Structures are given as structure tokens and as C-alpha cells.
Amino acid sequence: MYVREAQAQELDAIYAMGCDVWSDDLSYEEYLNVCRNSEKYQAGIWYVLVENDQILSSLIVYHDIFGLKDDCFGIGSVATPNSLRGRGYATTLVNLVKDELFFYHNGKAIFLHSDIDNKFYSRLGFVEIKGTGCMYISNRHFGFDGSVPAYF
Ligand SMILES: CC(C)(COP(=O)(O)OP(=O)(O)OC[C@H]1O[C@@H](n2cnc3c(N)ncnc32)[C@H](O)[C@@H]1OP(=O)(O)O)[C@@H](O)C(=O)NCCC(=O)NCCS
């Protein structure tokens, strides 16, 4: 199992992973079109967890946008296909992306805005910035100044 950046032809499959919670009242095709045209999605880099050529989970990484400071990253849109949930794939993906950003991209802190119970992310070491819904994890070189990135 490993993590890599997603390829362009994988994006529809990635968008489909969160369709059950993020499509609102849209049809599947309408939802895909919204995702394909999303400026937010175009501003980030998608990462996927892969095993035997199968994509098991995905998330997007933001940098230099949404008020994220130098050396800070944002992660979002974590999703696993419905049929593969509950097997630890999102946990593995977030952990591997964390390592990638801290060790290979000199990240000092990673922020996220949780749409789900914070417990999922606090188990992974993220701490909540009280009263904001925003969480972060940092290394020892990061001095948090209290500024919260915009929602992403
Ligand atoms: C949340 C999600 C990414 C978890 O993926 P996964 O591969 O099943 O995750 P894991 O197997 O690593 O972890 C499963 C844990 O996530 C928890 N979880 C799943 N959905 C949750 C939710 N809506 N609120 C809180 N926790 C949730 C499960 O309770 C489970 O905890 P347990 O191990 O104590 O039973 C997946 O359910 C999903 O794609 N949901 C739809 C998109 C979404 O809401 N993403 C979150 C954006 S912040």
C-alpha cells in the first residue's frame, strides 16, 4: 500500500468517493460536473492510497492558498469508496500524507476543517483550535500564532 499524487484520468473516480455525502440534491452527472469545474479542487493536489492498482482512498492537499502560511498545508475532502469504508484506508492515507508533507515538503503544520466527528482526526494526532472546527497537527518547529486558515 502506498501513496502517490493522483493522475488526471483518476479524478472522476476520486470525486465519486464522496458523492454520497457531498452531492446534495444533484444527480451523479451534475455532481461530477460541479467537481470537474471546481476552482477549489483545481487549486489543490489530489493524493491517493493505492494497492494492486486499486485506489482505496483519496484526499486533496492545499498550499499557499486559503491563508495557509509558508510551510503550512491544508488537507481536505478525505473520502473512501462506500464499499471499502471501515478498513483503515483513510487513516492510512492521512498518516502517509502527513509523513510526506512533514518529511519531503518541509511542512511544519497541516490544517483541516472537519465535516465529521473530530474523534476521527484527533486519533491521528490533530488538535482542535477551540471553537473553530479547524484542526491542526504540527512539528516542533511550528509556533502557532492563532490564525485560522479560511474554510477549504
Ligand atoms: C470518513 C471516511 C473518509 C472514513 O474512511 P474510512 O476509510 O472508512 O476510514 P477508516 O477505516 O480509516 O476509519 C474508520 C473510522 O472513521 C469513522 N467515521 C466514518 N464516518 C464518520 C463520520 N461521519 N463521523 C465520525 N467518524 C466517522 C468510523 O466511525 C470509523 O471509526 P472506528 O474505527 O472507531 O469504527 C469515509 O467514511 C468517507 O469517505 N465518508 C464520506 C466523506 C466524508 O465525510 N469525509 C470526511 C471529510 S472531513
UniProtKB/TrEMBL annotation:
A molecular function (GO) held by this record is: acyltransferase activity, transferring groups other than amino-acyl groups
Pfam families per record: Acetyltransf_1
Top-level taxon of the source organism? Bacteria
- Where in the numbering of this chain does the N-acetyltransferase domain appear? 1-151
The family database entries (PANTHER family) matched by this protein are listed as: LYSINE ACETYLTRANSFERASE (PTHR34815), N-ACETYLTRANSFERASE DOMAIN-CONTAINING PROTEIN (PTHR34815:SF2)
| Name under which the protein is recorded | GNAT family N-acetyltransferase
What is the species listed in this Swiss-Prot or TrEMBL entry?
Answer: Vibrio amylolyticus
